[in-house]
């Protein structure tokens, strides 16, 4: 298995330049680049060609753009914004060698029928799949384990991806989101592992279903999530690609960025190495 760093983990105490430096130093294979803040911040003082050159001359590579946000159940203007943003991601992603674009479903207080949610998701993802095809970039749909997210369980997300039925459309399985709205292990056991593109590693404090927020995340292995159950199951269904650590904990933002990146690796590898071998485990 390969190891990836998601920039949310150092959202408030680092930038793309430092994240890349420390991830390279500590033996990460990949990085998920935040397109809503960290990439634009980088491009204030650098060019896309600078980033291309960095990846060409270092071990670490770009795994994903994170994220295309609120892609479904939009009005006509909102839908066109999503399409335009996605096309821009395709052009930039092709230059950098990005493998995935993470797509996040709509979060809203509005009550929308589940069938209407599914219909919109399938329609939009099919359109995005067509756009992405010539670029060789895949779409990883990330269900979000909050009551206000239109797609908030693994089973619901997997049903949508199955209905789309495209090789370049799959899922992000985030352990926090899986736990937070009570996704069912039996749904994961029945899934095709090839439809899971990225595994997000994290853990959480033990709050009830429906009350958990991203700020409740803790280092893998230090919380209440059944990580052993999730990891053993994804291995059984054939997933062994990339584990990407992603946390949003405010107190971790008070740490030195290198300490956070080092701890993220150590805790993730400690938990996941019970089930998977990592190619790069030692600090470089």
UniProtKB/TrEMBL annotation:
<dbReference type="InterPro" id="IPR036237">
    <property type="entry name" value="Xyl_isomerase-like_sf"/>
</dbReference>
<feature type="domain" description="Xylose isomerase-like TIM barrel">
    <location>
        <begin position="21"/>
        <end position="263"/>
    </location>
</feature>
<protein>
    <submittedName>
        <fullName>Myo-inositol catabolism protein IolI</fullName>
    </submittedName>
</protein>
<dbReference type="InterPro" id="IPR013022">
    <property type="entry name" value="Xyl_isomerase-like_TIM-brl"/>
</dbReference>
<dbReference type="Pfam" id="PF01261">
    <property type="entry name" value="AP_endonuc_2"/>
</dbReference>
<dbReference type="InterPro" id="IPR050312">
    <property type="entry name" value="IolE/XylAMocC-like"/>
</dbReference>
């Amino acid at each position: 298995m390969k190891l990836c760093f998601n920039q949310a983990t150092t959202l408030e105490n680092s930038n793309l330049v430092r994240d890349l430096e420390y991830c390279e130093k500590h033996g990460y294979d990949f990085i998920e680049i935040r397109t809503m803040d960290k990439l634009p911040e980088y491009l204030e003082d650098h060019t896309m060609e600078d980033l291309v050159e960095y990846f060409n001359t270092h071990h670490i590579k770009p795994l994903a753009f994170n994220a295309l946000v609120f892609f479904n159940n939009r009005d006509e203007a909102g839908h066109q914004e999503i399409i335009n943003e996605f096309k821009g991601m395709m052009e930039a992603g092709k230059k950098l060698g990005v493998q995935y674009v993470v797509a996040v479903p709509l979060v809203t207080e509005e009550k929308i029928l589940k069938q209407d949610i599914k219909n919109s998701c399938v329609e939009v993802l099919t359109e995005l799949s067509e756009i992405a095809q010539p670029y060789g970039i895949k779409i990883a749909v990330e269900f979000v384990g909050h009551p206000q997210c239109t797609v908030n369980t693994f089973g619901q997300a997997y049903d949508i991806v199955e209905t789309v039925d495209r090789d370049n459309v799959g899922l992000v399985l985030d352990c926090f989101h899986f736990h937070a709205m009570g996704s069912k292990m039996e749904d994961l056991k029945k899934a095709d592992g090839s439809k899971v593109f990225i595994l997000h590693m994290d853990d959480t404090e033990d709050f009830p279903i429906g009350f958990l927020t991203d700020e409740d995340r803790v280092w893998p292995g230090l919380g209440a999530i059944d990580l052993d159950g999730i990891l053993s199951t994804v291995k059984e269904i054939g997933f062994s690609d990339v584990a990407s650590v992603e946390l949003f904990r405010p107190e971790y933002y008070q740490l030195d960025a290198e300490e956070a990146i080092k701890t993220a690796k150590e805790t993730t590898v400690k938990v996941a190495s019970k089930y998977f071998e990592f190619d790069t485990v030692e600090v470089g």
